[in-house]
Amino acid sequence: MHSTVKVTDKIYWLGANDRRTNLFENMWPIPQGVSYNSYLIVDEKIALVDTLEYGSSDDYLDKIEDLIDGKPIDYLIINHMEPDHSGAIKTIVEKYPDIKLVGNLKTFKIVDAYFGLKDMQYMVEDGDEISLGHHILKFIMTPWVHWPETMMTYDLTEKVLFSGDAFGSFGTLDGGIFDDEIEFEEYYEAEMRRYFSNIVGKYSNMVQKAFKKLEGIDIKYICATHGPIWRTDINKVLSLYDKWSKFEAEDGVVIIYGSMYGNTAKLADNIARKL
């Protein structure tokens, strides 16, 4: 795990790189690995935004403790309950037994099934807000991007969008954490497209509905749960997701064929050559 990285003055990235898993969700090849991103807001009240996959980092709690210096964590914001982000919830609850789990009705149906923890639940609805002191968090329901309970958390103070799996990418963060520290076009764009296609693309109509909810919101940072943090070219990632979720074509041709004896394959090769 990298050292903790400041996103803004009071927001920290706590992430881990997974270079061991061969198949994401036991389905999608990830030869370049994947990152799991968690974020900590240290204010008058302290909020942890999503956790990590269980076992992905052996110093996760140590990094948190270094930042909060013995103070309790007041809230755990659960934007998404998939195990690669909820895997450390039990560990966090055991360490900070007075913490409140923040989520929506559908979030807590899954929490109930996984952990119980009914007395720790703080339910929010679309547009609800929580004040941490300097920071005010607003919750935006974005169901089916890409699970039924998914939501986003927007920091009204510093214009940070904690977007869950939306705007995420395959690929580990090899030193560069922010979009201006990486070679996006040379590597991450293809991995982001592949991530979108496999993980989110089926729910493109819901992505477009989420875009409607984000209209008019000033976003200075996008902090997804996988891949780089966006702080420089926000419109780049937004425009790519908008384009992909509208199924807008890119230059190129895809030839799909099935060939039992190889003859149709030869035909496909000939078509490709002519093109």
Description:
The protein has 275 residues and is α/β, with parallel strands linked by helices. It has one domain (5-274): Metallo-beta-lactamase, Chain A, CATH 3.60.15.10. 30% of the residues lie in helices and 22% in strands. The protein is built from 8 helices and 14 strands. The protein has helices at 60-68, 83-86, 89-95, 105-114, 184-200, 204-214, 234-245, 263-274, and strands at residues 5-6, 11-18, 23-24, 28-29, 34-42, 46-49, 75-77, 100-103, 121-123, 129-131, 136-141, 151-155, 160-164, 221-224. The strands form 3 sheets. A 7-stranded mixed sheet has the order 1-2-5-6-7-8-9. The protein has a 5-stranded mixed sheet with strand order 10-11-12-13-14, with no helix packed on it. The longest helix is centred in the C-terminal third of the chain and has 17 residues, at 184-200. The N and C termini lie far apart (47 Å). The mean pLDDT is 94.
